[in-house]
What does this fold into?
Amino acid sequence: MIDMKKLTVSSSPQIHSADSTAKIMWTVVLSLIPAGIWGVYAFGMTALVVILVSIAAAVGSEALLSLIDKKMTVGDGSAVLTGLLVGYNMPPQIPLYIPAIASVFAIVVVKWSFGGLGANWMNPALAGRVFVFFSWTGPMTKWLLPSVRGVDAVTGPTPLGSLKSAYFATSLNVSGPIEFLQSEGLPVTYKDLFLGNIPGSIGEISALLLLLGGLFLLMRKIITWHVPVVYMGSFAVLIWVFGGLRMGTGFFSGDILFHLLSGGLVLGALFMATDMATTPLTEKGNIIFGLGCGFLTFLIRIYGSLPEAVSLSIIVMNMFVPVIDRYTKIKKFGSADVREVRGE
It folds into this structure.
């Protein structure tokens, strides 16, 4: 007689890896350091203070809740990573209580109230950023020009912020976003966007260093290509086809490179949309997730009232992850054999 217990399919994960949670988290932190160094170089020591306050608030909240739960989790690096990402999503001159509140909200409300690491349904750092953005919109939309442009502590709009005003202009006599920005007194080039010589959040401005960090994670197999490539690829196609309409240049004339390198798209696609706890389990699911993120980012950035849309797009798609998993889940190996043994 066959022992049916031996045929019971256990729950996932069933594939073991040498990478621990702590190793993965600290590897992601390491991959983000170059972009943070550039942010501090571009904006000065105030940017470093913002990052350190964000990390301290996240780690402090994690330590306090760990003591209450009697399970210390500070050493796994997840709180440090959350605080680091919160700091990277802040303007460099932001009042320090704002990133502190964002980190506390990320850890206490988003992470621990749902059960801790791996149980949260949306990315904690993004949730913290969105919370303070709508609570303190003024300080969260005030930007510094990088010191590498030869100015010191001068505020100015981000490229996307300036471009948003162009979308509502009655007439435009420009061929694209770069020409418009230059006509508005913000001499931005594609090289500036790629290297990080633009106003913006501390850790999002250097597309080059973020791409190198993402490539490092891909090589270490911490993330896969599905979400970032599909996210940025679908967004790029939509921008190319429809993005030119808001500039008055017609279909198939959108400036792909400008929109890919502007705002928090690279940071979000590589380091936050790939969060293991809040993305689908299957490759097919990740492709659907990336398509959704790309579509929502395009829709909000081009036709919405906000100049940036990455944070909201990823959070909205986080809500759909359970549904995506339900319809893309892989059939459990051995389940058919069990039914045959039972004579069903």
Q: What stands out?
A: DSSP finds 16 helices and no strands in the chain.
